[in-house]
Amino acid sequence: MYWRRRLTRLEIALYAALVGIVAAVFLERLLTYMELAERTAMEITVDRINSALRLRLAGDMLEGRLIDVPAALDRNPFELARMAPANFHRQLDGSSIGDLERGYWVFDRQRRELVYLPRLHRRLQTDDPDDAVRFHLIPGMGTTYVLVPASKYSWNWTF
Fold it and tell me: CA 116 to CA 112: how far, in whole Å?
């Protein structure tokens, strides 16, 4: 009969507080790992673009096609690589990046930059006022070009 007594208000409050603290810690960790996954997906996409660009350049060289690097630097990297992720939104023509949906890639034609708009950006530090990460093509050695960050950014992690 000891365990059949009713809980006091103090016990209920303590249990509720304990469950609330555990839930808050769990949700904060969940958001941290979701943001880490988003950053990783962004970096993998950039690596895939660079790999596809190198493969396309190698194919063009093998087939003897002339490579026009200056003209390529003005084009959309997804178009050059002949690939686009599912979250490639569109090409941006002068509208504000802050108005667009987060979690998508866009190509800014005016600045000739590939822009990623992260959905979760609590730990992102960038110079961009819209918390966007920007990339652009630069010429490499010889007849190559590579996608690199247009400005410094960092995603700091403390676990």
Answer: 13
Residue 141 is which amino acid?
A: M
- As a whole number of angstroms, the distance between CA 44 and CA 66 comes to 29
The per-residue pLDDT string of the chain (159 residues; one tens digit each, 9 = 90 and over) reads 567 788 889 999 999 999 999 999 999 999 999 999 999 999 999 999 999 998 988 888 888 877 777 778 888 898 888 888 888 887 776 667 777 788 889 988 888 889 999 998 888 888 888 888 999 998 877 777 888 898 888 887 665
Each domain of the chain, given as residue ranges in start order, spans 8-155
> What sign results for the dihedral spanned by CA atoms 117, 118, 122, 123?
negative
Instruction: List the Cα angle 152/117/155 in 5-degree steps.
Output: 45
The neighbouring-strand residues paired with 146 are 138
Token output for 158: 């403390």
CA atoms within 13 A on the CB side of 146: 7
